[in-house]
Amino acid sequence: MLFELEAVLEFSNDVSGKKEIEELMESVNKELFKRGAPKGKEEEASKLKEWSTEGNKLKVRITSGRYVRAPDALLRLRSQLNLLGGKIKAGVRRVEIRRLEVKEVELGREPSEEVRVAFYVDRIDVKGDKADIKFSPSIPIDVIEAGGVDRIIELIIEKVERQAYEGKEEVKRLLWESKEKEVFFDKDPSAELEKMNWIRRTHSKGQFVYGRNFTSIVNAVKEILVEHLYKPLGFREMLFPKFEPWDVPKRSGHAKSIYPDAYYVMVPKVSNPKEWEEAMDYFRITGEIHKEGIMKKVEPVGILSYAQCPPFWQFLEGKVVREESLPIKIYDWSGPTYRNEAGGTQGIARVEEFHRAETLFIGSPAQVREIAKKVEDRLTFILDKLLELEIKKYSVVPWWMAQEGEKKMSDKEDEGIGTVDFEAYLPYKGERKRSEWLEIQNVSVIGEKYPKAFSVKSTGGELWSGCAGGSFERWICAFLSQKGFEKKNWPDEIGRRVKLEEEVKFA
Amino acid sequence: MLFELEAVLEFSNDVSGKKEIEELMESVNKELFKRGAPKGKEEEASKLKEWSTEGNKLKVRITSGRYVRAPDALLRLRSQLNLLGGKIKAGVRRVEIRRLEVKEVELGREPSEEVRVAFYVDRIDVKGDKADIKFSPSIPIDVIEAGGVDRIIELIIEKVERQAYEGKEEVKRLLWESKEKEVFFDKDPSAELEKMNWIRRTHSKGQFVYGRNFTSIVNAVKEILVEHLYKPLGFREMLFPKFEPWDVPKRSGHAKSIYPDAYYVMVPKVSNPKEWEEAMDYFRITGEIHKEGIMKKVEPVGILSYAQCPPFWQFLEGKVVREESLPIKIYDWSGPTYRNEAGGTQGIARVEEFHRAETLFIGSPAQVREIAKKVEDRLTFILDKLLELEIKKYSVVPWWMAQEGEKKMSDKEDEGIGTVDFEAYLPYKGERKRSEWLEIQNVSVIGEKYPKAFSVKSTGGELWSGCAGGSFERWICAFLSQKGFEKKNWPDEIGRRVKLEEEVKFA
């Protein structure tokens, strides 16, 4: 990897012929540009190849390999020049990149299609498994300060890596399967639920209003979770926010790739009703919403919660948790979360507004691994023995990686990091062996990702987290698909908790 | 009220000299323009004052009073002309308004400031309590077809009426007050809750993460509501949607004025990840959200639920409910609702994301009035006797009117329509008599508004609805403000249900 950089530093005053500058420029290759390069790799550090002054401008050309890269050298140089300030009676007012190229970037594999970056990159020339990157001269210095050049290089490497996974089958490994269970139904329960008026579609895609009987089943599932999972394992309920300000997806990593799948939230830039008279008048006159007018008067402030646990982390953000408070074991079902399903919705098997019990645990790596195992065992017991569902368990691509666009298994599986998915058989989809089963629940050991992202530490050393999530819509879809609507075919554990009544009748 | 209208009807062919047109134009003042005018008011109906043809154009001038208004006469004329189609070998292709004025519109009072309408109105000239309205010639014919002219006139009258209420004190009438209760605390409980880590602010305005102890109090309140309100009165739980597609605020009337107070929801216009690569790359490079890019790629699809009950109505929309299913008695606490608080947030006393038990009942007017009374009595019992709170009840401006911008009491109070508010004393705000109390709960008889708006009918005749709502945040704010944090000062009804534990400790 070879960096070539040409830049102009513009001063607040004439600097031509200043001997302090000359002294500095003569010395940088010995010390300033070498500092921090690993032993034996000093040759890869930056070198000042040329420099000249003209009026208030200093032109430089810097090259480097991998260590103390040319953009970093440029920033160091600027700092040193500013330290001369008093002596040369001038400060650096502006830095302009004239040319920035990185050659022979190792991509790890040959790209299968063109690679592009939407910002600050003019060209990417690929030769085999290497690329030459030509940056835009317009790349702002504050992007460089924030590490943008390295990020762009990483992004390109990652895009090439992803090409290799794209279109590939889902990666998963069967861990366990329940016995075959007796099946009492062979229809799509969603259609049945709609026919019976137990649920009704709204004007929005993938959204339902759930009636009293469906809600009674939801509450039965909740009760079972409390009695057989949360109480015995000592979990406590909390209320997690359901709107996520940008800080949350920025820290959780969802901001890397959630965009096509998100529900966005906007609020008025100005709340003065006078400012909104246009939209009000428009509706009063036409009976329609003035969408263009709204778009001009709102700003995007975040997204509706997608993975449910990320907004919790604001509870601990920036804190050091005392070891005696660990492990933290909590759950939340205080509201729906949202996904824009590009692939289309499907009854209650794939909705856009869904209701989930989210289970979260935080502690030392050993604590988190142990709790995850117990949660998995309890969930297996509930699904297999209490609800008597036919299920399988798989080791899958961890959800937090999938939601950041990754399609491969965790490379820390040997430390216990990863996700277990529960899939349930849907008889209406066809034969057991050939049909698509429904993912209804997962349990994960996430590792240090969230504590790190939200700057949470423990007085007891390394801090990990894990979580488990499953939507009531999917649990009930699986349950009704296998057991049907006749209560006599339901296991007592759920049957005795559900109160069925006549739904509202329509003429 | 006098309408003056000049318009040009453009035909698909030359119509000059057609005798069929002449015959029609000679007859309209006798029949077509008079039809439907009330007996004795025929003089107020439209009159064709002038007409002429030139090539494919027919120019008309129509005047009218209040009945069969000139714009309606124009539409009738167009229909009749199109019926001639076969005979004159031409159809009306376009209607262009040349001039439309309405004079002497009675405003009900003299405006206190200028009145403006953002669309289709060029001028409003006010003389005393009357106005002359000059419409824009660009007003589209489909706005006229949809009744836009009448809506604009109504809107102007309403704007003048509102000027009279603006800035006035809240209208309310004391109905009842509890005995003075012993007070154990004089601080702001929100500050206390934050200090104890029971709740923590998020990165968003007026939003908190609620910890285990606060959530335990929330659950205690829920249990009390179930045991002492919902179960005895036969209410059943449902899950109401929490995102409201535009159809909901359009029907509920919130679209009239909710704009400055709403949280808006947008979804991607296109879900293909390739379309979103720009936003993804931007975050990867800069660590920031590409807000401008997002704004270009999303469309506004609705709002986050504000009043909680409106989205329920999609469950019944367009249906005729069988009388035997009435009354319908339901409640929902399946997720938070949202308000953009222009006036600022205030601890848990005024949050933007809040959690509410919403109570809804639907039936005949007699049923709804009776249930509302029972719900009010039960809530009074719970707040006054079980939680031992010091409260007052007021008759207030109904919330659905307030949320549409009205500031006056219902004019159907004698039919039982209206809202009762419960206010609680907050000792930290000062003396009982002088300080501002907190509105924590309301109960309303709404009347026919919602069934009508969502086209819901009953086989048993008139259909009404009523509702009751109160946020847990405010109930608990009132409770902790009066009772403090020492459990020994709490009534047993709540104390025995709440499990307090050490919250997470920070180093």
**SS-derived structural category of chain A:** alpha+beta
Strand order, largest beta sheet of chain A:
7-19-20-21-23-18-15-10
CATH topology heading of the largest domain in chain A? BirA Bifunctional Protein, domain 2
Number of structural domains of chain A: 3
Largest sheet of chain A: 8 strands, mixed
The best one-word shape of chain A is elongated
How many H/I helices of chain A? 15
The CATH C-level class name of the largest domain in chain A:
Alpha Beta
Mean pLDDT of chain A: 95
Distance between the termini of chain A: 75 Å
Rg of Cα set of chain A: 29 Å
Beta content of chain A: 25-35%
Query: What is the H level of CATH, i.e. the homologous superfamily of the largest domain in chain A?
Result: Bira Bifunctional Protein, Domain 2
